[in-house]
Amino acid sequence: xxxxxxVSRNRFVxxxxxxxDLYADPPGTRTEEAxxxxxxxxxxxxxxxxxxVRHGGQADLVTCVSDDxxxxxxxxxxxxxxxxxxxxxxxxxxxxxxxxxxETRLEDTQSxxxxxxxxxxxxxxxDVDAVDYPAYGALVTTGTALAAExxxxxxxxxxxxxxxxxxxxxxxxDYRPYSWPSPYAAMRAYARxxxxxxxxxxNDVEFGLMAGGHERGLAMARDLAASSSKxxxxxxxxxxAVTFANGQEVRxxxxxxxxxxxxxxxxxxxxxxxxxxxxxxxxxxxVLRGSACASIVVARVGCAPAMPTPVExxxxxxxxxxxxxxxx
Length: 328
Prior knowledge:
- This protein is an alpha/beta fold.
- It has a domain at 4-13 and 51-65 and 123-319: Ribokinase (UDP-N-acetylmuramoyl-L-alanine:D-glutamate ligase).
- The chain is built from ten helices and 13 strands.
- The strands form two sheets. Strands 5-4-1-8-9-10-11-12-13 form a nine-stranded mixed β-sheet, sandwiched between helices.
- Helix 8 (265-278) runs antiparallel to helix 9.
- The mean pLDDT is 96.
């Protein structure tokens, strides 16, 4: 049986991609007008791992990187953040790391993402079989890891092994349409992953996809929570979030800021949320801390480099007037 209390170990194994982000520089520059770019680590799973480490936790990434300069950049970046790379395998051939060309702009933001022959999709069952699951407090996976083979089979194998070890699975739905052959394929894979997860985090669009219609997303989240002991966080952007846990339904707002860009919020939220749970905070408080982290990151350049430390989070919370009133 899964033991959610194990999250307090504050040590996580994270499945999914690491990549390179190229930001048009200076902030505000359109990509087509840029003459220089700044590079940083990217990829949803790596960003989540960076957030966990910034908060004082431990995170080990399970993925594959390409046997080229970009793959080596990713390995160097993981090391610089203190993210464990003992389960990061280098693959040759035509496999390439994810590359994102993005902007620090709030309006008409462009993100051009290259995922041709994505190296992270080369993760195999053998890669996840090598993980010592009992050593961790939770397994974290994003929906991106389910979008292609052999990564999909490897991810479901990891979920099975985590469950067998009593390890809670944290599932960030993270729907990226460009990675999937069809919405239906994503819906089926997400439903299976959700059934094996103790904590599910997603936005209204993602739950709507799983439910087969946007208008049914909240009802599905409510039903998932009612039929199990799962923690479900249903995010609604500026309208805040609805969290289902321990038989309760709690609505929380957001922390308004002068944002520079829309990217990185979801990864920051999950890192801050898990850090709050690891500290033993009530679920609703952990959600608010995750929301604060998301606000901090959208007001900074980059994603992984923008993840706040506990000191920065505390300073933000002390100076901010407080979250908005949650939507009814």
